[in-house]
Amino acid sequence: MKASETVDVLVVGGGIVGLASARALSLTNPNLKIALYEKESDVAAHQTGHNSGVIHAGLYYKPGSSKARLCARGRALLVAYCEEHNIPFEICGKLVLATDRSEVSRLEELRQRGLANGLSDIHLLTEEAIAEYEPEARGVAALYVPETGIVDYGEVARHYARDIEARGVTIARGERVVAIGFRKDGRRRVEATTRVAEAKCVVLCGGLLADRLAKLAGIKTDVTVVPFRGEYYELVESRRGLVKNLIYPVPDPSFPFLGVHFTRMVSGGVEAGPNAVLALAREGYRWRDVSLRDSLGTLAFPGFWRLARKHMRMGAYEVWRSLSKAAFTRSMQRLVPNITNRDTFRAGAGVRAQAMRPDGSLVDDFAFEAGEGVLAVLNAPSPAATASLAIGEVIRDQVLKIGAFS
Q: What is the pTM of this model?
């Protein structure tokens, strides 16, 4: 027989957004009885734990969007949290590098967008000035963004988990939610692997399984998650000096992914990546990780085929770059020409939960959907880790309304 419990709020999903939401609720009302179910053996097992660790400044986001607003507030809250808890981080700045004259006008567009989003010290660099920040980088111009930083989000999430457990929140690990129903008294009944919870409000922070959990709870949505794997290489220790901090390309407005870039990590290593290939499983970090259910679900989704037709040539190149280290190295050499195949080794990968609609359009901003006694996070893409504490505040406010908690 499964263990039964009654709580005020049940959070499903132990990634950084779910943990931040439980934290915000516990801080606001310490009398709330809160539980969190995570299907893996520990928190931060998927998108959070495979994050590249960038503290985003908010350069790319449409002014006034949830991404722009929550990134700005979330960055300030995150930095304060790291300082309070002695979590290693660094505000090191980054370069957005134009390698072709045709990209220079887009640098100015990005600068204007960054200024509109509250960044105060971003400025354009001439070709000659680039070496002052990144001696090995080569470009015709660059944008310097000093507010960008680095941190280990897995470590941040584990701190969140310890925080909420100290406040009385129960984190039940190894609990996969299999059913979400109703009781006659209006509470939600959530059945997991070994536990059953009755909750006044359920918060779904499912990440790669966000759409499935929402539908399990009876929320009608046309959003489907399509998983894209991003693969990384890492510089060998003797060649880490090729990159001082972070070097990004100018984003291609016709392609939905950012492209290969360099990120120095707080551990001292330097990552290069990611590419973007269709994952054959929602939690598929290697080509051999295949889920028949996930693959058939993607192939049956009309939005995927509309996106694929639009970006067929680029998609084929991304697959080739996944299979060919030489092709991946050529992408790195666009930014840092002196890198060779011998300077890198294949490192980890992450899977991005790309929320899409049937017409092939991407859900670009954060997306939440409320139902009877439930709040679903349908889309929490980058910069969700940077913005996690601010997103937690938004979810807290909505949950307090849904549950009518005082």
A: 0.96
